[in-house]
Amino acid sequence: MHTMKAACIQMNIHHCKKQTNIDHALSMTEKAVEEGAELIVLPEVFSTGFCYDSIGENAERPPYPTIEAICGFSKEHDCILIGSIIEAVEGENTISPHNQIYHNLGFCIESGKIAGTYRKTHIFGQERSYFSGGGTILPIRLEKSKLIIGLQICYELRFPEIARKLSLAGADILITIAEFPNPRKHHWKTLATARAIENQIPHIVCNRMGEDPYSTFFGGSMIINAWGDVKAQAYGEECIIMHDIDVRETNEIRKTIPVFADRRPDIY
């Protein structure tokens, strides 16, 4: 599939209210599908927010109830859904209470099946007191659509190595899901655009809006093409943004400005 209608769900996340958030996310996602969206992106930990006070109660283990709900929707509507949840796994000598390791688990679901997952590797600020970082950065390959998704999570937008590694590994689309807070709106837009331009790849950045006990959030979700042009943009309100992504554009741009061919990995 060369062209796909992509959507970002910019939503408020009700702190620690999992079912409320799942219902709200799927309601907005249904509207996106009705308008033709085939690939839908949700914000980081969309079902709970950073629910530190009750992380043990809200973290999920296989088969991941939130992901099961998302899979059911994806199967019914034959669409792709991307987001993340808080995951708990058993472990010893962990930084977390109750002998648990917690991860920020990104997921990509295609037509009702989990195509792949990604554990956030770069942990920021207060998250370090609760979360462990993943150990691999690999793109997710979608069987039906033949797309390759490069998924990164929030703080990782600041690390160009991640987007470059995903792009070199064949990603067709770069996706960043986030709870990027105030007052860093300028950083968000600049970094998101830069990741698209320097890798000559479409970039969907999906941020939350609203507030939690720790921060307020400006939204600012965008769909950026491989030239770095912002094709759809949200501001501070709940909304759905949509745009067609043509992955063939990447090849044409890379012929016009051959950044990847001109790289000098022998000296850096």
Protein model, in words:
With 268 residues, the protein is an alpha/beta fold. The chain has one domain (3-256): 4-Layer Sandwich (Nitrilase/N-carbamoyl-D-aminoacid amidohydrolase). It is 25% helix and 30% strand. It is built from six helices and 14 strands. It has helices at 18-34, 55-58, 65-77, 160-168, 185-199, 248-256, and strands spanning 3-10, 39-41, 80-90, 100-110, 113-119, 140-141, 148-153, 173-178, 203-207, 209-211, 216-218, 222-224, 230-233, 239-246. Helix 1 runs parallel beside helix 3. The mean pLDDT is 95.
Q: SSE layout and pairings?
A:
Elements: E1 3-10, H1 18-34, E2 39-41, H2 55-58, H3 65-77, E3 80-90, E4 100-110, E5 113-119, E6 140-141, E7 148-153, H4 160-168, E8 173-178, H5 185-199, E9 203-207, E10 209-211, E11 216-218, E12 222-224, E13 230-233, E14 239-246, H6 248-256
Parallel strand pairs: 1-2, 2-3, 7-8, 8-9
Antiparallel strand pairs: 1-14, 3-4, 4-5, 6-7, 9-12, 10-11, 12-13
Task: Give a quick account of the main beta sheet: strands, pairing sense, barrel closure.
Answer: 6 strands, mixed
Helix share bin: 25-40%
Figure out the total of helices.
6
Full CATH superfamily name: Carbon-nitrogen hydrolase
Which CATH-level-2 architecture?
Answer: 4-Layer Sandwich
Annotation, overall tally of beta strands:
14
What sort of overall outline do the alpha carbons produce when their principal axes are compared? Answer: globular
* SS strand fraction: 25-35%
CATH topology: Nitrilase/N-carbamoyl-D-aminoacid amidohydrolase
**How many discrete structural domains?**
1
